[in-house]
Amino acid sequence: MERREQPVVPVARLAGVRREQFLRDIYPRRKPVVLKGMELGTCTTKWTVDYLSQAEGSKEVKIHVSAVPQMDFLSKNFVYRTLPFDVFVQRAAEVKHKEYFLSEEEKYYLRSVGEDARKDIADIRKQFPVLAEDVQIPEYFEKEQFFSSVFRISSAGLQLWTHYDVMDNFLIQVTGKKRVVLYSPRDAPYLYLSGTKSKVLDVDNPDLEKYPLFVKAKRYQCFLEAGDVLFIPALWFHNVISEEFGVALNVFWKHLPAESYDKSDTYGNKDPTAASRAIQILDRALKTLEELPEEYRDFYARRMVLRIQEKAYRNDYG
């Protein structure tokens, strides 16, 4: 199939944005934006490899290890391993390793979790208290809306799968550089979803024989440097590649009523309870349609789609 390029839209970059301006002019638009020049504390200058290693010492951390740069959560092309934090940081900063699990060029990724990942949320203040003292998290939301603060460290070249989260998110790039590719929730039909994740692993060179509709998705893109903060609205798909070894902090917060969220969700990526119920009802309806011959099943399925579009689709996307 002939290669076609996705249209690319640069993500807006704004400097010196105060809380009032963010909540009044930026947040309601529900589009990603890079915030520059924000006060983040001493972390942007202090968090060298040596400092990180010494600050939290030899506490053990569970990490992802991949023999290839593109990590795929659907095929699970990585393994979980445990290392002392100081050893992990040193290894993640290396290009080639003298000691390794899979290969001398393997990639490392830490995504912090709670003490019990099934019950506790990630909170840098609890899991990495020494480092938390160096961070000033932008207070653009109310304290009761806070959900989690996820500490991340990535090897250079590591690329994470495209996915969406159900909560709003600040991606704070503390050190290193990242490229972030984003897609609007409206382009979900073109992303070949499996749950919250896209099956299209390589967004730069997609297999258009296998994923022909992917080219229709509008690609938003930005490059983050140390000190940049990317606002990712809930439901926006994002694919992240670490261009350098780097440290980041994601801060998630809730903007729906508390009862809207799944109480067992410690990662912020389970669909709201009402959405989960609706999907279950739809699955039952589709199962019922299987009682009809193909011609009738096709006709009534199309009527269902039209009804969903009429009752639930928005018409005011910018």
Automatic annotation (TrEMBL):
Its cofactor is Fe(2+). The keyword Iron applies. This is tRNA wybutosine-synthesizing protein 5. PANTHER family: HYPOXIA-INDUCIBLE FACTOR 1 ALPHA INHIBITOR-RELATED (PTHR12461), TRNA WYBUTOSINE-SYNTHESIZING PROTEIN 5 (PTHR12461:SF104). Its EC number is 1.14.11.42. It comes from the Eukaryota. Pathway: tRNA modification; wybutosine-tRNA(Phe) biosynthesis. SUPFAM superfamilies: Clavaminate synthase-like (SSF51197). The lineage of its organism: Eukaryota, Metazoa, Chordata, Craniata, Vertebrata. Residues 126-270 form the JmjC domain. Homodimer. The gene is TYW5. It holds the Pfam family Cupin_8. It comes from Aquila chrysaetos chrysaetos. Belongs to the TYW5 family. It catalyses: 7-[(3S)-3-amino-3-carboxypropyl]wyosine(37) in tRNA(Phe) + 2-oxoglutarate + O2 = 7-(2-hydroxy-3-amino-3-carboxypropyl)wyosine(37) in tRNA(Phe) + succinate + CO2. Gene3D superfamilies: 6.10.140.1470, Cupin. GO terms for molecular function: iron ion binding; protein homodimerization activity; tRNA binding; tRNA(Phe) (7-(3-amino-3-carboxypropyl)wyosine37-C2)-hydroxylase activity. Keywords: Dioxygenase, Iron, Metal-binding, Oxidoreductase, tRNA processing.
